[in-house]
UniProtKB/TrEMBL annotation:
Organism placement in taxonomy: Eukaryota, Metazoa, Spiralia, Gnathifera, Rotifera
The organism's place on the tree of life at top rank: Eukaryota
Gene3D superfamilies (alphabetical): Ribonuclease Inhibitor
InterPro entries attached to this UniProt entry: Leu-rich_rpt (IPR001611), LRR_dom_sf (IPR032675), Ubiquitin-like_domsf (IPR029071)
Designated name of the protein: Tubulin-specific chaperone cofactor E-like protein
Coiled-coil ranges (or none): none
Region described as Disordered: spans on this chain: 528-547
Source organism per UniProt: Brachionus calyciflorus
Amino acid sequence: MSFLNKSLLDAIYDRYSEINDSDSLDFISSSSCSSASSSPISADSNNNFIKNQSVVSFYLPEAYSPRKAQDLNIRTSVSIVMTNLGLTHIGDETQLESICKDVLELDLSKNEFDNWEEVRKLLKCLKKLRLLNLSLNKFPTSNEYFNWPLIENLNTLNTLILNSCFLDLDLVESILDRLPNLTELHLASNNYKKITFSSQFLKESLKILYFNNNLLEDWLEVCKLGKSFPNLENLVLSENNLENFNNSDENKPNCELFKNIKILILNKIKLNDWSALDQLREFPQLKHIRMQNIPLVENLSDEEKYYVLVGHLDESIDSLNGSKISNDIKENCERKYIRYFMNLNSKPERYYELELKHGKLDPLADVNMDIRKRVHVKIKYNDKNIYEKIDVRQTVGEFKKYLEKFVGHPSNRFKVFYIDIEACSMAIYGPEELKHTNRCLYSFNIRDNDEFEIDLKPVQALHTTTSEYQFQYQHLGHLHQHHFNSHVNNKSYFQVPSNQNLTNRIKNRKIQTENLSNKDSTNRLLKRSKPGLITSPKLINKSNEMSSKNRNFLKNDSICSASLPIDLNKLKTTGDNE
């Protein structure tokens, strides 16, 4: 369908006609994804997003084929994005109301709407609509073409976005008068230099105002916004030409005009004077400030910008640029602030306030605290030695990954020990294992000519059958119940085999065996990760009886070591009472 005279209803039919008849099909349009990324309600590159809204989920309808209007019911769509489609009008109102009766958010930005009457009809059709984005449309900018009746009930809408519409502010005033419950308004990128609301205009319901990327230069113009919107809590003024917050009107000072402001966003304004920052103390409820890319601190490092701004701001500020300011951080920044300005000829008034609070501080000693980034070390593995220049900023996990090629095994198959040559030569301490994968190497204080030694972990043998576990664990007086249950689908406790079965099993083994000739070998323990002793009296009695009857036989016969876990070769002798 051509873009010429295309309606919103046509666009909805086109969008959802791609959905075949099905039971509750969830459909996500690829165009919706691209639209979402550029939506003006998302955070921009200047961090002008002032509240944590959830991500809008576009196009999740439980829909049917739109061959008939009554069949097209967008029952689960909370938000619809119809941007850059050349839409000029909404279409049949009855059908639109039927299929979009549950829509809460609608984005119509970058279309060709040029008649305010279409917006009025749209608000009447979508009775649950809460958010409407009309940015970058071609509406008449003056009030003479706007004729909405004041008595009309349009009280569901609470967010209106009019970015880059270039509407006269008297027209904006007329629109807001028809929206009694509006709480959030976007008027960004409209080239406003003067605020021309009428003196009697008052919108007490408005709490959030985006007025960024305009041409405001004088703070007195911003004060007019405060008069028209007395209950503002969040104000975005980024990318205006403001140099200070000086209000010369003694009858309406900042503390009265902006008494409810909690969040103030001032990125990329022209602030270039420390005394201007002091004026922010006049906002009694101000808690959160965003202030990035301002001339005042443009020549400082990122660290200096942070502690100088935090140190200068009032103690009532809880966060700067999204970072929470704790009491410890505040005190630390104030001390750094004092040391930063103590040797400068020009000092802000805040410096003397903090000097009275913390006293005169001594300058920090000029000590080079830089960490050496690379050191020469020796790495040993078996008979192989290599000399490497390693980066100590990497973590233990990254270093072990780097050693895999040299060792020829994955990093979980070997251990790495750090050897401080100087400390070892003085017998202060020995090698230290690198255990924690997230620990940085520089924390070991590694120096040139220190060493790393690699030790390969033993390979675990394959698990044996159920009967072999029964024999091995019972003969040795142990039961590893957890290990047995995790590998064998059987009872929780081993069943003691008969003596005849034991004899036959041992005699039938045909592979190489290991002689356990020591008479105390029947009481040795199998060393495993978490061995558990047999505590049942019945099992202990049977085990002792079996051991007594077969002691002489076992002196000349053997247990198959190939069928046992590898640690059987490292048996430990225990007392007879075990």
